[in-house]
Amino acid sequence: MDFRPLLLGLLLWCPALLANTEATMDEINTLLYQYPQQANEQLLQLEQKLKQTPADEQTQLRLSMLKCFTQLELGEFQAAINLAQWGEARAKQLGLEQARPYFMSCLADAYSGFNDLEHAMPLLDSAVFLARHQQQPQALVMALRFRGQEDTENDNFSSAIEDLRLALDAYDDIMKQEQHWAWPPKAYVLAAMGNLLYVSGDLERGLEYNQKGLEDPAAQGKIRQVLLLNSARIAATLKNNSLSASLLKQAKQLLPEIKSAQQLAISYAIIASIEFELGDVSNAENIALVALNTFEQQGSELHAMRTRRLLAEVYLQQGKLQQASEQLEKVENTAYKTNSYYELKVALTMLAQSKARAGEFKSAYALMERAAEATAKANANANTAQLLQYKARLAQQSAASTQAELIEENLQQKYRFNWLYTIMLMLTLILVIVALALFIRSSRPVTTPQQVTNDGAFSGMELLEHAMQHAKRGNYPLSVILLSLVVEDAQTLEQLRSQLELSLRETDSILALHADEWLILLPYTSHKGLERVMTQLNPLLAPTARVAGHASLQQFDSSTSLLKRASCRGLSQSSLA
User: Fold this and answer.
1) In terms of DSSP H, where are the helices of 299-418?
2) In terms of CB atoms within 10 Å, which of 17, 21, 184, 557 comes out highest?
3) Nearest to 187 by CA among 36, 30, 22
4) Would you say 137 and 146 are in contact if contact means Cβ atoms under 8 Å apart?
5) Where in the chain is the domain with CATH 1.25.40.10?
6) CA 309 to CA 327: how far, in whole Å?
7) Are 253 and 283 in contact (CB under 8 A)?
8) How many angstroms from the chain centroid is the CA of residue 421?
């Protein structure tokens, strides 16, 4: 029997099967955020299919990764921890380092679900570092979104806004990644930014970002409901009750699409809080009791405590002091058991207020003293988590430095030349460079801006590329300011250059990109530092030049993408775009 036709058929069929499997997993990657229960069912079917037709290790690893994030969305945190720990170990074993930051993000988010920030935050820092090192924009966006959410919940707003801004900037690079693993829909990142702006007091912008999220094609199912509830809550705080009620109604219509009991209970709890804000106290009480019942059945102690706090607020509003005290005492007992000192502080404070309303001032005072102790312990826990996070970042920087030194040493050993040959080669190169520089200078007009700003034989773009490579290798920030020259007079431009150089640091430089365009290069300058430099330089520019744009370097930038983002920033002038 001739097996060649059969073999040829198999060779043609296998790549098609692999491509189909990858496309299916891409679809599941979005589905798990919209309808996690459906995504879980499809993953089980795909797992059975791959048992009959075994796939490569990389495909199997991605399947486990998607299962991990699905368990997170379903609220199955322990299952997610088990999958994440196994997945990272397996990725190490297979030498697939690029897969590790995804499992680290999943593990961190699962720990966060148990309110274990001491493990979660250092893991997220490591995931961000590894994602950058392995050039995985999908993992970077994933980890930055998680970290931004955690920093928002812990009132670390400056860090959160930097993370979420970077996640939105890096999102365009997600589909350029050669091997797809996992990434959140953009609507989820927009929702995180909207929530940050809401809790930090920028209500109008918070509502705007949630509305942008609702316009995203992926905003279906659970994602859409999250955005609607966020928007309804902000509208209620803005006292726009009609808009809030309309958005809340749309969110309630999506409840049948949520199949997870845990997620359904979370939705009910949020709806109850919005109903309470809108003044429908009785409805808020009924919905909160439904949510609390589910949380107790699921063993979700953190969510149960927060729902009991809401119920206590409802009872206090209704004048039911005894029932409010009962709920807060249950929160207190659970908080002691789980070391949830922030929840304990809030519960004790509310309990003290209820006692004071009842005229029991001695009990109220004792409760406030205990609330102060809980506050101190909550702050100590937060400081411990931040210290561990800081140590993790220092370790990452040290590892990056050591790795760079090892690479440099290997290169030196690999390319060690005979000394005489090396000296001759260097002399020859110097002569060529000098000759080329003299030729370029003699062929240009004396007063061109290129000659004013670039002293060597390299173009502005080449010098920019060189600076970007150094910044990436040294893992330090780099920012640029794009200037558009309005005046063409050589003497005036020379005066402007002198004034700018006096205001800039020795490490900064001015490059000419075109006859009417200069670039100010700012090494070791973050986005915040960039804004200070622009404020300092603005008075010097008019009427000779104007700022045409600005940008800060990202790990995946080329000189073209960096200048493109700088130009776009010049057009939008939006600090959060």
Assistant:
1) 301-318, 321-338, 341-357, 361-414
2) 184
3) 30
4) no
5) 21-182
6) 7
7) no
8) 50
The CATH homologous superfamily for domain 21-182 is Tetratricopeptide repeat domain (1.25.40.10)
User: What pLDDT is recorded for position 378?
Assistant: 65
Q: How far is CA 16 from the centre of its chain?
A: 34
Q: How far apart are CA 226 and CA 474, in angstroms?
A: 40
Q: Among 243-252, 273-282, 415-424, which is the least confidently predicted range?
A: 415-424
| Residue type for position 539 | P
**pLDDT value at position 26?**
94
Q: How far is CA 16 from CA 10, 12, 50, 346, in A?
A: 10, 7, 14, 57
Which phi and psi angles does 279 have, rounded to 5°? 100, 0
Q: Mean pLDDT across the stretch 446-454?
A: 38
Report the C-alpha gap between 191 and 208 in whole angstroms.
10
Which amino acid, one-letter code, is at 49? K
| Angle at 193 (CA atoms; ends 101, 153), nearest 5 degrees | 75
- 449-572: what fold? Alpha-Beta Plaits (3.30.70)
Residue among 303, 344, 306, 347 at smallest CA distance from 325: 347
List 512's β-bridge partners, or say none: 518
Strand partners, 552: 479
Residues of each domain in the chain carrying CATH 3.30.70.270: 449-572
What DSSP line would sit under 86-121, residue for residue? HHHHHHHHHT-GGGHHHHHHHHHHHHHHTT-HHHHH
Residue 350 · residue 368 · CB < 8 Å: no
SS3 of residue 499 by DSSP: helix
Compute the radius of gyration of the chain from its Cα atoms: 29
pLDDT digits (tens, 9 = 90+) for 516-539: 889 999 988 888 888 888 888 888
pLDDT at 458: 59
- Contact criterion met (CB below 8 Å) for 447 and 439: no
pLDDT of residue 493: 85
Whether pLDDT at 440 is above 80:
no
Query: Burial level of 400, CB count in 10 A (0-12/13-18/19+)?
Result: middle
- Could you tell me the two tokens for 517? 């365009």
CB 277 within 8 A of CB 233: yes
pTM above 0.70, yes or no: no
Q: Counting Cβ atoms within 10 Å, is residue 58 exposed (0-12), middle (13-18) or buried (19+)? A: middle
